[in-house]
Amino acid sequence: MAEYSFVxxxxxxxxxxxxGEDIHGHNFYCIGEFELDKVEKVKKEFxxxxxxxxxxxxxxxxxxxxxxxxxxxxxxxxxxNLKDKIKVKKIEVFETVNFSGGVK
Length: 104
Ligand SMILES: Nc1nc2c(c(=O)[nH]1)N=C([C@H](O)[C@H](O)COP(=O)(O)OP(=O)(O)OP(=O)(O)O)CN2
Known about the structure:
The longest helix is centred in the middle third of the chain and has 13 residues, at 39-51. This protein is of the alpha+beta class. It contains 3 helices and 5 strands, in the order ββαβααββ. It has one domain: 2-Layer Sandwich (Tetrahydropterin Synthase, Chain A). A hairpin with a 7-residue loop joins strand 1 and strand 2. The mean pLDDT is 97. A 5-stranded mixed β-sheet has the order 3-1-2-4-5. It is elongated and about 45 Å long. It binds ligand LPXRUNBV. The ligand Nc1nc2c(c(=O)[nH]1)N=C([C@H](O)[C@H](O)COP(=O)(O)OP(=O)(O)OP(=O)(O)O)CN2 binds at residues 19, 70-72, 95-96, 98-99, 101. Belongs to the PTPS family. QueD subfamily. This is 6-carboxy-5,6,7,8-tetrahydropterin synthase.
């Protein structure tokens, strides 16, 4: 049976230390897929969550003191921040055009 969903996409800028590399920044790109809901409400919550990461050194955020700020853990942070407010199907975070990690 067909299932409706919709997708939001947004950039955020942040730096991180992970994978044995020195601190470096990225224009991260996040794609969120959501179950049908009021689009304005989902946009508001998605923007609010990504603002928690924008212009931050990710390793300084409490969540990333326990988990390295890899793409899949950044996606997990976004997912966990949203899941009690809106119905999230999938979060994918791109670090470069060729590489992303996600959760669903
Ligand atoms: N479990 C994870 N492992 C790795 C992650 C990650 O997010 N989770 N990330 C990386 C790299 O930072 C990521 O692969 C980007 O690598 P980079 O060489 O900077 O960029 P590209 O892959 O786009 O470059 P190519 O030239 O296409 O290889 C590693 N491990």
